Amino acid sequence: MTDPYKVLGVSPSATDEEIKEAYRNLAKKYHPDQYSDSPLKDLADEKMKEINEAYDAITSQRREGSSQWGGGYQGSYNPVGASGSSGFQDVRSYIMAGRIADAEQILNGVPAERRNAEWYFLKGSVLYRRGWLEEAKDHFSRACQMDPGNGEYSAALNQAMNQGSGMYGGYRPHTNMNAGGCNACDMCSSLMCADCCCECMGGDLIPCC
Amino acid sequence: MFGYVRPYKSEMLVKEYEQYKAIYCELCRRLGKSYGILSRFALSYDCTFYALLALCVSRSQVRLDTGRCVMNPLKKCSYLPVKGEEYEKAAALCVILTYYKLKDDVEDGGRFSALRAKLLMALVSPKAKRAGKRYPFLEEIVGKAMEDQALAQKEKGGIDRCAHPTAQMLSELFRELPGCREGEDAALERFGYFLGRWIYLMDAADDLEEDLKTGSFNPFANRLGLSGKKELTAEERKRADEFCNEALNATMAQMLLPFRLISLENFAPLVENVIEKGLPEMQREILFLHVNLKKKKREEML
User: Fold this and answer.
1) pLDDT digits (tens, 9 = 90+) for B191-208
2) Which among B159, B245, B256 has CB closest to A168?
């Protein structure tokens, strides 16, 4: 087995706190929920397993067998699940098995008059997995319009919309990327400005200048 | 490719910046050696990134050399040579991409740019032929993508359809990078897909205003219902910028997932800087600070 310290990216002299921190960061990075609808799920699971093992090994080394919160994250959430009353059971099982091309072929064969909200949702899921994100979003919103009460469809649409906002990477126009907006210098100069304004009007904010 | 994949310098350590520059300089040197002095002008940030990623994935041994800059003999430069073929492939890719870019200009550029491109083509095409002979798969991947791109534009396809050829091209280029760890080729492939998609969308967003003026095809213009317009009002411009930014962010979100699964040994901080900081910075510069637009306006005034 590889060196557990190397897996977590910490030195063997790191404190317990540092190790926990490194583990948490990595676990966040490889968390299987993020990869639930990605073809890379297996690889992510493997990395997660590696980290869990490394963390367990270090903690048990250090505390002689009493691993604290080993096991880590398990189980995953997959947006396309088996739905009881589905008209497209075969498509759902293809998507879950990662057979995207087969799922798409069936969906494309459905005549226009039979394309209901679920059809749009599943077609959107297929597009999403292929990386055609804009059309996926359009299909999800169509599904939501046709069936506004459905939680599955609105969760998919929300996820697609959130990713556009920059929460998961990219640039967020309404937040300042460089340092905080107000520092000591800004405060002083604002006070000086306020003082000048007061003085113009005959008052005084800072008596000493 | 178009030069949007760059490091964000202010967030780099000096050490990292020097490494990046040494890779850039080494690639420049190899270009000169293999394809003649003039081909150095084909050097781009994108191909440097390709070389950088190849170095990371193959875990090659590198050593630092110092020498003189070939373009400016008074300047000292560091180089990062390796035994493997990483730079040779990146250099070939540079030349091939430049050739196709010129070919595209000849076909649908304006009268002057077509003429200029024709003259340059005469210089580039023998080099591109040599590069293609050395690495036939590079030639094939790029050529196929360009054909598909032309088709997508002819169909007046949507955003996803138009971005697909470039995305597919990068995914194929990254997949064949030798030396990656077992199972990680799938991650590289998917990372390449979204990086290519990001590059195409960034370029389309950057060209939006220019394309509207000249009446050229642009997938964002079609999608936003702006085609046929010559000028954009400030409000329309803002809406378009925000729409483009959202599409880019969604692509970024998908790109980061496979990216985190790739083991980048040698130069992990460099690659992370380019992807996690450089790309968002590029979105900011182009869509919110309008750097390129201002540059164009200045040039027009002169």
Assistant:
1) 999 999 999 999 999 988
2) B256
